[in-house]
Amino acid sequence: MGKKYPCVEVNLKKVTHNAKTILAMCNKKHIDVAAVTKVYCAEMPIVEAILKAGVTQVADSRILNLKKFKELSCKKMLLRIPMISEASEVVKYSDCSLNSEIDTIRSLSKAAKGLNKIHNIILMVDLGDLREGVMTNDVVSTVSKIVKIENIKLIGLGTNVTCYGGVIPDSENLGKLIDLKLEIEKGFNLKLPVISGGNSSSLYMVINDTIPKGVNQLRLGEAIVLGRETSFGKTVPNCYDDAFILKGEIVEIKSKPTVPTGTIGMDAFGNILSFENKGIRKRAIVAIGRQDIRVEGLTPMDNDISVFGASSDHLILDVTDCKKQLIVGSIVEFKIDYGCLLAAMTSTYVEKYYNN
Ligand SMILES: *Cc1c(COP(=O)(O)O)cnc(C)c1O
């Protein structure tokens, strides 16, 4: 049967290779990897390719995805601060969740008691990025409440940076996490075996050997699938950045001016655009659009093709300089960034193919 377009093609061998490379790199520094599966909607062929590399823990932000892992023997972590309304499912489908609210932890406790389980939690600490986590000054008082809650085991501290505020992890902010761990272990006479030092933005510190001693877990999504650390956007050494390729089909190809004719109002998304006059250019329309992708995150594999823009379901390319003979029906290939991958994997209009 012929392929359907648009599609994402995943090279599973490259995914396994990336996971293996990153796992070895982290293990050398005594850091464990929780493989984050949300960006590809926890598609099982990809999850399996990562587990094949020797990863022992998977992490996702949505219960719906964790449910798919029920039969897997690896550890499962819930990444997003749980909703009180999903407390019993959190306990049922994850071994560990990241938390920042006492009321929620109490709900998890009740659910765990009901299921006769102990639920592990990592307390999230906000080190300045201003997404989730208790402020550093409130960590000790929060821990004093958590340790009294039944069926809940506090196994560590965690943080998340470079997500909302764009704060880059460094030895100073991650060092604070280690200081807090030591203070809590002493003050409460308990062990905090897990220090979860962030996401793919923390990986550069493993690469350049500056990650503070004591950080022993990273939660990695993008680094594994796109082979990129996300503090500086560099390719991870010896990793593939093209394990995921987006392909689309040309439905129109015509030479047209670069500046629209008529009075310019807003586009379909409420933006007023300006147009650089490059004269008459050969334009190709690919059948994919903003409902399926983040246009800004596309990079044509052919350097002679560039992106003019897109509406909901039309992507407009400048193919004037393309040396290949493109016609209606030709397939164009793109590398994609995190936002684009997230959208494409989530879109039901984009077909997914897995190559071994
Ligand atoms: C999404 C997420 C991650 C993974 O982020 P990447 O940049 O893909 O590595 C890690 N931790 C939390 C809490 C997340 O929500």
Q: Outline, from the CA principal axes?
A: elongated
- Give start-end ranges of low-pLDDT stretches: none
Which class of secondary structure composition applies to the elements? alpha/beta
Total DSSP E strands: 17
Mean pLDDT: 96
Which molecules other than protein and nucleic acid are bound?
pyridoxal-5'-phosphate
Please trace the helix and strand order, writing H or E for each element.
EHEHEHEHEHEEHEHEHEHEEEEEEHE
- Our measurement of the CA-to-CA distance between the termini, rounded to an integer number of angstroms, reads 18 Å
How does this structure look, described?
- With 356 residues, the chain is α/β, with parallel strands linked by helices.
- It is built from ten helices and 17 strands.
- The protein has helices spanning 12-27, 44-51, 63-67, 87-93, 102-114, 139-146, 171-188, 203-207, 222-226, 338-346, and strands spanning 7-11, 32-36, 57-60, 75-78, 96-99, 119-126, 134-135, 152-158, 194-196, 217-220, 244-257, 280-286, 298-300, 306-310, 315-318, 331-336, 351-355.
- Helix 4 (87-93) links the parallel strand 4 (75-78) and strand 5 (96-99).
- It starts with 6 loop residues before the first strand and ends with a strand.
- The mean pLDDT is 96.
- The structure holds pyridoxal-5'-phosphate.
SSE topology:
Layout: E1 7-11, H1 12-27, E2 32-36, H2 44-51, E3 57-60, H3 63-67, E4 75-78, H4 87-93, E5 96-99, H5 102-114, E6 119-126, E7 134-135, H6 139-146, E8 152-158, H7 171-188, E9 194-196, H8 203-207, E10 217-220, H9 222-226, E11 244-257, E12 280-286, E13 298-300, E14 306-310, E15 315-318, E16 331-336, H10 338-346, E17 351-355
Helix pairs in contact: 1-2, 4-5, 6-7
Pyridoxal-5'-phosphate binds next to strand 10 and helix 9.
